[in-house]
Amino acid sequence: MEKRTKLLVILLIMVFVFLGYRIYNGVITQTVYKSDVEYVIGVSQANMREAWRVALINEIQEEAGKYPNIRIVTADATSSVEKQEKDVDRLLDFGIDLLIISPCDSSRLTKKVADVYQEGVPVIVMDRSVEGFDYNLFIGPDNNLIGKQGGECAVRLLEGGKGKILELRATAGSLQSEERSQGFDSVIRDYPGIEKTVCDLKNDMKDPAYDAVFAMEEELKRVSLIFANNDSVAFGAYEALKDRNLAEKIKVIGCDGFTGENEGVDLVRKGKLAATISCPTGGKEAVQYAINILRKESGVPKQVILRSHTIYPQNASEYLAALDRESMDDGRRITVGYSQVGQESQWRLANTRSIQEAAREFHMELLFDSGDQSQKKQIEAIRRYIKEKVDVIVVSPVVETGWDEVLKEAKEAGIPVVMSDRRIEAGEDLTTTYIGADFLEEGRRAMRWLKEHVKPEQGNVRILEIQGSEGATPTEERKKGFFEILKENPRYEIVYTDYGDFTYDGGKKVIEEYINSHNWDVDIIYSHNDDMALGAIEALEAHGLNPGKDITIVSVDATKEAFQAMIDGKLNCAVECSPLLGPPLMKAIRDMVAGKEMPLRIITEEKVYDQSDAETVIKNREY
Ligand code: AHR
């Protein structure tokens, strides 16, 4: 090489190094000097081949661009677990302050994510969760619900609920595609006039979808609608229909709903797709929560499940306008009207304290009413709040049904309603979001713990169940989740069940009644909350029985009183249900008033405790 060329090459390398660039595994990356920035966020993406994932990275970059003190470093795992593990190590070597990861394989990346979290680097998991809870926050869509929305949309488009649907399953076999398909089927199965066939596609690309649909010449003659679980595939299908002169006859529904030319919303506006179901990436939320986590702010939940919308030509412009909505925050103090269930349990008292303290911390005006477990009283309180023109109404409902009328009144008055702790059955547009626990999972955890710790010996394991209040979400779901695991284990059976209303006296009464009418023949008590379990313990002891020893007792909540009972050897396991909903609730209200779209569900962190850790945990237990 000539001397001058050599000098030029050396100079270029020096500039390259000076700017912090290096080549690693064929990828050019830029080292970020931490003195320039406050936080470096590493993003490990499963692959950058799927349009949805590219959109996720773009959204993260765009949101991070609003904060001059944040840098994003990304890595593409090319769908390889081994590469993704190495990517995470490499990002840690860069000195990232927080990791955002969308794992390409949930179970095989669980350990890596847990290691990072335990090393003290906060982790946000996106789209597909890992196993267990060793991460700070999970953000993702509800794919089953997206499928359901697709099903409802199909029924609506097939006026009269009749016709043949062709479902195009992009990236067939993936969890996402299965969940969407199941959700879709759960709706159309109620319409006997609807028939469905499935075409599995290996990927989510437009051209292969075009080829597959174009080749179905004969079959298409009988099809009235195509449901594609991704917009690129839907677009490919539309083009094939157009080339077969069938675009007028067969309607196409897609999923994703991105904005931009030839993306889902645009295709709907142009009339190429009849509708699309949005599947938000959560990139924006990830950056915002990352900042909350890094700044150690309160109110960060454990799971955020994002909302999806059905976009038709008629509401597409409105949808786009809502995305650009300006902040409604005018600096006023926010007034919140809170309708609480009652005071039935220690959990409830801790929950009320948490709400009141958080309202003070977030400088909000809180109007609070305890409903004494009466729906009538709760409805009266909601009507009062409507009259008083509060900014937001929050309801922790005693039962799931019977709220439509009063919620419509709130909607007409323009007051958003947030569900806290418990959910209701009501029109989707009547409430804004749900903040609380995953009761189904609590039920599953209770039974999983039991099957690990109480093994069948002679005969079946006999379970007595004390349910909460009839018609309340925690009752329904704790029962359902428990049963889901129980039915996979035929040696366990529920021999008796009754309601204890979530109160100490209620639990005690269920056991007394059982003892008075049966010879004691129960191995396990599964109680839907701690107060009822403690009442049950008193009744058992009064009849000379040995709770925690002869009878294994599992309950839900994990209050301080439950820990004490575990230390005393009377209770065996407590599945956590956190009452500390105040901070995430107030944070969500503040975001909502500032014009941000509310996620579908905001779920709190929960664990399972037993006698082995009770002594340690009780020391710092807040409730
Ligand atoms: O809705 C949450 C449940 O209600 C708690 O588990 C129970 O203790 C409470 O009263």
TrEMBL record:
It is found in: Cell envelope. CDD domains: PBP1_galactofuranose_YtfQ-like, PBP1_sensor_kinase-like. One of its GO terms (cellular component) is cell envelope. Belongs to the bacterial solute-binding protein 2 family. Residues 41-297, 338-595 form the Periplasmic binding protein domain. Keywords: Membrane, Signal, Transmembrane, Transmembrane helix. The chain crosses the membrane at residues 7-24. Its main location: other. The keyword Transmembrane helix applies. GO terms for molecular function: carbohydrate binding. Pfam families: Peripla_BP_4 (PF13407). This is Periplasmic binding protein/LacI transcriptional regulator. The keyword Transmembrane applies.
